[in-house]
Amino acid sequence: MNRDELTAIRRDLHAHPEPAFCEIRTAATVLDRLRGLPVRVRTGAEAMTVPGIPAYPSDAVRSGFAEHALRDGHDPATVASLAADGTAVVADLEGSRPGPVWGLRFDMDALPIGEADDPAHPPAAHGFRSSYDGFMHACGHDGHTAIGLALASRLADRDFAGTVRFLFQPAEEGGRGARAMIAAGAADGVDKFVAVHLGLDQPVGTVGAGIEGILATTKMRAYFTGRAAHAAAAPQEGRNALLAAATATLGVHALPRYSTADTRVNVGTLHAGDNFNIIAAHAELALEARSTDGAVNEDLTGRVKQVIKGAAAMHGVEVRIEETGGSTSMVCDAELVRDVVAACHAAGYGSQTLETVHMGGSDDASLFAAAVQQSGGLATYAVVGGSNAAPHHNPYFDIDEGALPVAVDMLDKLIRNG
Amino acid sequence: MNRDELTAIRRDLHAHPEPAFCEIRTAATVLDRLRGLPVRVRTGAEAMTVPGIPAYPSDAVRSGFAEHALRDGHDPATVASLAADGTAVVADLEGSRPGPVWGLRFDMDALPIGEADDPAHPPAAHGFRSSYDGFMHACGHDGHTAIGLALASRLADRDFAGTVRFLFQPAEEGGRGARAMIAAGAADGVDKFVAVHLGLDQPVGTVGAGIEGILATTKMRAYFTGRAAHAAAAPQEGRNALLAAATATLGVHALPRYSTADTRVNVGTLHAGDNFNIIAAHAELALEARSTDGAVNEDLTGRVKQVIKGAAAMHGVEVRIEETGGSTSMVCDAELVRDVVAACHAAGYGSQTLETVHMGGSDDASLFAAAVQQSGGLATYAVVGGSNAAPHHNPYFDIDEGALPVAVDMLDKLIRNG
Amino acid sequence: MNRDELTAIRRDLHAHPEPAFCEIRTAATVLDRLRGLPVRVRTGAEAMTVPGIPAYPSDAVRSGFAEHALRDGHDPATVASLAADGTAVVADLEGSRPGPVWGLRFDMDALPIGEADDPAHPPAAHGFRSSYDGFMHACGHDGHTAIGLALASRLADRDFAGTVRFLFQPAEEGGRGARAMIAAGAADGVDKFVAVHLGLDQPVGTVGAGIEGILATTKMRAYFTGRAAHAAAAPQEGRNALLAAATATLGVHALPRYSTADTRVNVGTLHAGDNFNIIAAHAELALEARSTDGAVNEDLTGRVKQVIKGAAAMHGVEVRIEETGGSTSMVCDAELVRDVVAACHAAGYGSQTLETVHMGGSDDASLFAAAVQQSGGLATYAVVGGSNAAPHHNPYFDIDEGALPVAVDMLDKLIRNG
Amino acid sequence: MNRDELTAIRRDLHAHPEPAFCEIRTAATVLDRLRGLPVRVRTGAEAMTVPGIPAYPSDAVRSGFAEHALRDGHDPATVASLAADGTAVVADLEGSRPGPVWGLRFDMDALPIGEADDPAHPPAAHGFRSSYDGFMHACGHDGHTAIGLALASRLADRDFAGTVRFLFQPAEEGGRGARAMIAAGAADGVDKFVAVHLGLDQPVGTVGAGIEGILATTKMRAYFTGRAAHAAAAPQEGRNALLAAATATLGVHALPRYSTADTRVNVGTLHAGDNFNIIAAHAELALEARSTDGAVNEDLTGRVKQVIKGAAAMHGVEVRIEETGGSTSMVCDAELVRDVVAACHAAGYGSQTLETVHMGGSDDASLFAAAVQQSGGLATYAVVGGSNAAPHHNPYFDIDEGALPVAVDMLDKLIRNG
Questions:
Q1: Which residues of D touch A265 (CB under 8 A)?
Q2: Which residues of chain C have pLDDT under 70?
Q3: Which of B214, B259, B293 to mutate to test binding with chain C, by most C CBs within 10 Å of its CB?
């Protein structure tokens, strides 16, 4: 696959951003591109376990995205199966010589952010801005998926030792996809796990062979149920779920910093109430805790829940809290970091290679890493600089496409070096 | 129109509840029923002034309700015109003798409340529960509209003095419809104004000839605009609109009671944020202030705005506040109250007639009343008991249909007594 | 006692304001003035029951006020006894003819408010401003006590039927004194109870023979106990009582208005924490609920407690809530109201006499009234206008002294009329 | 000075803890002990500049502590001068050979914390628990002062090169003392600056020759002024300073964590209101911001102020914010750190010596350090382990007295090594 083709795939994906577990058109594109390559593909229940996924999108929502895939001419049977059974794709490509099993994670999901419509934003200027209102690839997963496909094409000559498992993952945002794939056995037998991530405020050409500071995280939803009442005729009959949720929000954000580890809390969304003149009977929060230390994240998560329950009790409303996702912290293995550094040198990017980059975010690749490391394997998380124009999760986020071949080249060398 | 027909109309309307300014199927039904009666009908710009209505529903929303009307077989031209130009209907019925111009207000809109689906709830038991998910006639406007249509049919003999103007009003909830109709001249020339309201916790057979305690109100929306940021990688770059809105909510509810008048405040809805891991860049509140005293309502409204602006300033976010509706307080004219009492006696309901009922809510009929009174006319607001099973705006709200003929009889006598 | 003497007593009391249960110099003055009159005096445990009074001032605080009384030359034994056993004084004056037992309540306590030091404020201009920093007679109790003493002097001729019981009450503010006196039997046998109150925004010369709108109230203190920690070195080890108290405060003020009765809530004081750099381990609130309806006050009190407990739970801190006082609502007996009106006419103030004045506050005289009414007696609460210069509880509050003889004359006629 | 005497001084100081700028008995003790040594002593305006110190304690407060010093038999003239002109003491001890000017900081102030009264707490068991209610040496400054005095005694032989300046500093807690001493020239001419601190969770025998993670900090007070009103009769007339302060507190604690540096915020005290039934007219907060990065601390401080101002605006109250203290972050000079390490080895503590200890707190010694470094000098901050029984600022805080000679020995060797 040449560079133009790589860029074209990324732009096509960028223009069609699909959120967590709705990556139907994206996975269909992945399957199309894998066709003809010497890979063994698993999808559906062989690639991910849907039962038990919290807050899985409704049939109606998934159908909406399936329609887009059909409109673009994707195979109806494939689309139907992806919509019904899940969007994860696992593809094993066996080399011509015996060797380790590599697990390479490429995440596919987009975010519920409206993309900037401004000529200063390259996707807008060059015609590949999101065509799905309110959704955007604002974290580079469009590029990740394209990199995975280019690498599979490059390695189709099978001139390497071992097996490369391409893990095309749904729902990295919110931390639910990796867990579902691991449950289906996608990490079984992997000896060396590598996730790549574009961006992270590094310039094009820079590769970080490992990261530190990846945050353990817990994603939660809280559902408050009070009692509606006419806000003028009988406000005292109401039990105000909106007030409970607002109080919880302030309380969660006011939780203390920890001196023992870096922490984060965020109530990201609050939706409550029906009308001006009704005491709000229901409210819903989406929120998260994080920490550089897994135990601190658990302690903080416990306090977040305590705050929410207390706020509900204050206002006489019921609350149900659901953990909808999460991931753990991660320590990159020095041996594999060294291999990535060596691969960068071999690929000609040595002068800009860093051993370690500070992450400051979360990624459920950490769950793949933990699974592999617990079985005696190695894991790292490599950052490929993309001179990102704006911070991750910003409507102006964009990746310099020069980053795409850097990642492909680095991974290619890493695999072939063994 | 016999009682069965009256009940049937009410049930049909009950099953098809349309919210403010979307009363397309309802208004089409009204127009159908008026056809053949000796009335002069005004619709569109002659009945209401759309430009300037705050938070008017979008074309897409109105089109959705228009489709329902079409599916039910209503005339496509009528439906298109109601969707395009507004749903108010003004119908003048001239008596055979000279006399005053009566203005009778019948409001048509429903509420964004999901109706109870429980055999204990009569509309569910008898098959006329809302067929529009999330919407419900939970304030009796279905009955009001049916009463207006039955009265028009009854008075079609023209055996009375003067003219009766039927004011079929959209958007009483939220307080925007009366203002728009007055702007189009609907109150011009009215000498005696009467609004009827079913329910208010009075038993069937009871009529309150006037009310006290009607609340002046201001409906507002507040739009907060902050700055998004990754909640882990750079939370300090964000400006948190959700926190500002939550803080404003607590502050608004904590505003003092007044010793000089009864007051209410309510933040009815709060919607903010996009995702767990993004500092929320936008938030929106729908809220209201009320008071038995118009000046106190204004003072309270000013303090509500001050709270909102201060909360935005705390968190470094911008805020825009929009007054989206409102109504004033109302004093019923004793002379007209006496006429209603007399009409009740004449209609055989005298033993249960009250001069005054306590309201404790708001109704923008007060704006019609104020317009008429300022021109030297008289106004009252009559309550027709309906043994309501649950409070207004509750998913179990229902009216005993025995109330419908009471209202028609009373109004019939009132007009014919002159 | 002539008018100059009456004024002089009031000014002396005004200059020496003593807060709840510390009215030692005041009670000593009362006892001095009663000496030589034909009264039977009860003090100490015969006049009030100290055990069980919540938040009774400490020995140290009472000793401080006792010192003032000693410095002014009051009898050391009397002062010691008042400081030790309570400051209530009950004095029975028997008329020369048989008749009813009248109970007249005169409250003696001042408020913890600093008095205005401004020549525009008459007590400052005329040299009788508070000489006790931070305390002030800002509710007219100085005048009440003076009225009681003048009336006792006037009725010393015993030319009336029945017995007059003068109830010199401590601690009206905060609602603890009446309860303590009733517990000691001070209300036993009273047939007709009258409390007088100066001010209430009525002009001098106006007497309200009864009141409506008196508020039932509950006074509470909440004590939060968390855990201290260094705010930088280990904030996560702390449990923040200050945050819990601040959250409770917002939640209490945000409790709904009631449509069934007028309500009030107020967190009047919050004291928390020790230093900038310590997570606050303790916090204390003084707060109140009120309502025109006793049952609503109880419901509201319950919700206040629920809010406080929930806020403590949010932040992992303990809380103890203490009801420190309270009073009930009150309905004045029409028969006694008529007698007061007649007395006013007899005293020459008839033209300005009102049957009923709106109160909008609380007074634990309501507990005396309830005790008397439950035993078949009658009760009223009379307002004597004083052209108050500023609202009650304001640093500029003052009473036109012309009000004092009006009250004495009215009560004199009431008793002598029988 | 032998070890028993060193311990005795520490225990005497421990039993008489004096808060910021009230260290009168402490400074008098210092002056007594310095008498007879070959030092040049500066006090009063030569040692610290009082004008401009924010929230300097009132004359009455300082007089109270002066009385304690007099009762203990300290010279009245000395006590009067310390109370009037400030409690800092600067003592220069010149060695017998030319050399650098050493500045050694010993802070003297205690904290407003009540000390544990529990036999498990050594000061309680051994009879040197605080005799001043509500104050406690809970940060080891009693030990620091004793160390300084023992070192001065030890170095009185003048067998070293250069000059040692002993900086006995008031008001380290709250960050105001160092600034006042620097303003008076106390840091002028210093070539090498060392502060020692006991404790910090290190075992006895361990010395940290330098620290990292010292936090820049800003201490603030916010004074809210609203309008009082009767909470029942006219709550709407009030402007609630307590609500504003509670809202500000939640908002300050809810400020975001920074990804660029470690931060802290704390509202340590809140005092508001006068009585249950008065809308609180005034409120006062004592609060602090901190960060490992000085610029982040400034940014955070700005946001804290914005929150406070916005909260005041919400509730229509005025607010004044005062910066009452602060300090900066600090980088220890490697050369001086090496000298401390060498001194530890020379003193026989080498096996437990660390180059760097993590601080996680603030100390305005950083201002001395900054002043010295800006003039080309060197600075470090040495931690002397004390096996502290409880965290700093805890009622059970205590130092193993075995730490005292370690500090004296280390400093002695450091100076004599040159």
A1: 257
A2: none
A3: B259
**Tokens at residue C294, please?**
């006793």
Q: Which of A235, A257, A303 sits opposite C259 (nearest CB)?
A: A235
According to DSSP, residue A160 is labeled S
| C169: phi then psi, degrees, rounded to nearest 5 | -105, 135
Tens digits of per-residue pLDDT, D28-66?
999 999 999 999 999 999 999 999 898 899 999 999 999
In sequence order, what are the residues at sequence separation of 6 or more whose Cβ sits closer than 8 angstroms to the Cβ of residue D118? Answer: D124, D396
Residues of chain A with CATH 3.40.630.10: 3-213+330-417
Contacts of D275 (CB under 8 A, 6+ apart): C111, C112, C113, C173, C174, C268, C269, C286, C393
The answer to whether residues C272 and C282 touch, using CB atoms and an 8 Å cutoff, is yes
Do residues D104 and D151 lie in contact, with contact meaning Cβ atoms separated by under 8 Å?
Answer: yes
Buried b (16+ CB within 10 A) or exposed e, C146-158: bbbbbbbbebeee
CB C270 within 8 A of CB D272: yes
Q: How far is CA A25 from the centre of its chain?
A: 17
- Between A126-135, B197-206, D256-265, the lowest mean confidence (pLDDT) is in B197-206
**Cβ neighbours of C299 in A, within 8 Å:** 236
CATH 3.30.70.360 range(s) for chain A read 216-327
Q: Which residue of D has its CA nearest to B279?
A: D256
Q: Which of D259, D303, D310 sits opposite B310 (nearest CB)?
A: D310
∠ Cα A131 A135 A139 (to 5°): 110
pTM for the model: 0.82
Best of B236, B239, B318 to disrupt the D interface by mutation (most D CBs within 10 Å)? B236
CB C123 within 8 A of CB C398: yes
What residue of C is the nearest CA neighbor of D253? Answer: C243
d(CA C85, CA D60): 33
CA distance B254 to chain D (A): 8
Query: How many Å apart are CA B95 and CA B152, to the nearest integer?
Result: 11
Q: How many CB atoms lie within 10 A of CB B85?
A: 15
Residue A124: other Cβ atoms inside 10 A: 17
ipTM: 0.77
The total of other beta-carbon atoms located within 10 Å of residue C376's CB is 7
Q: Which fold has domain A3-213+330-417?
A: Aminopeptidase (3.40.630)
Does 3.30.70.360 match the CATH number of domain D216-327?
yes
- Taking only the tens place, the pLDDT of each residue in A182-209 is 999 999 999 999 999 998 889 998 999 9
Supply φ then ψ for residue B218, to 5 degrees.
Answer: -130, 125
CATH number of C3-214+330-417: 3.40.630.10
Strand A378-384 to strand A207-212: parallel, antiparallel, or no bridges (unpaired)?
A: antiparallel
Cβ pairs A/D, distance under 8 A = 23
pLDDT at D154: 96
Distance CA A327, CA B221 (A): 38
- Crossing angle of helices A241-253 and B241-253, in 10° steps, is 130
Domain ranges in chain D with CATH number 3.40.630.10:
3-214+330-417
Whether residue D239 contacts residue D311, with contact meaning beta carbons closer than 8 Å, is answered with no
Chain B: closest CA distance from residue A297 (Å): 13
Write the pLDDT tens digit of every residue in B250-272. 999 999 999 999 999 999 999 99
Residue identified by tokens 């509470």 is C220
Pairing status of strand A97-107 against strand A192-198 = parallel
Give the dihedral of Cα atoms C56, C61, C65, C67; nearest 10 deg: 140
Residue C34 Cα distances to C91, C148, C155, angstroms = 8, 10, 12
Q: Which residues are bridge partners to B283 per DSSP? A: B224, B272
